[in-house]
Amino acid sequence: MKPETSIIIRSYNEEKHIEKLLIGITKQRLKTKEIILIDSGSTDKTVEIAKKYNVKILRINKKDFTFGGALNIGCNYASSEILVFVSAHVYPLKINWLEKLINPFQSRDVLVSYGKQIGNHKTKFSEHQIFRKWFPNISYTSNKNYFCNNANCSIRKNIWKKYNFNEDLTGLEDLDLAKKIVDNNEGKISY
């Protein structure tokens, strides 16, 4: 039996992308318990579009936004054992995306799982090169490598509770938390 998931999305003015993401989530073979949108003051139609779906919308003031802070709000609100993070401008390509992302949690020593990103026709050549390096075609599980990426990532809620995301960082909050897990020999990260 698969564990329940809560999907947490950070957004700010993502009307061009949010619906494609929400459609992709609703088409998953494995259904999520809840979708939580943390919106930091969108002035476009992001929230209006999200309201058409079964999404819990939490709003924060733009001036209060930090990457880690927004995720911590969503994690606190979430009710599932597995927390899934996706950026509002990404979307799953296959109907088994969620299944594949959380499958590594069948092993109790896996605490974080993250998935591939590939870009699209608008992605610059240099970004494609970075994606190839960061997101290879070979999966692995490690207790030495602390790379992960919150654009397509999941974590056990109990380990998030232990460490939380650093709200003072201006980015890389995902790497900071993963490094704490690895440095403290908590468990493994799966890609």
What does this 3D model show about the protein?
The chain is α/β, with parallel strands linked by helices and 191 residues long. Helices cover 31% and strands 20% of the residues. The protein is built from seven helices and eight strands; from the N terminus they run βαβαβαβαβαββααβ. The chain has an eight-stranded mixed β-sheet. The longest helix has 11 residues, at 67-77. It is globular and about 40 Å long. The mean pLDDT is 91.
Helix/strand/pairing category: alpha/beta
User: What's the shape?
Assistant: globular
SSE order: EHEHEHEHEHEEHHE
**Arrangement of strands in the largest sheet:** 3-2-1-4-7-5-8-6
What is the number of beta strands? 8
What can be said about the biggest beta sheet?
A: 8 strands, mixed
Helical fraction equals: 25-40%
> Radius of gyration over alpha carbons?
16 Å
Mean pLDDT: 91
In DSSP terms, counting alpha (H) and pi (I) runs of 4 or more, how many helices? 7
Task: Note the beta-strand portion.
Answer: 15-25%
Poorly predicted spans:
none
Distance between the termini: 21 Å
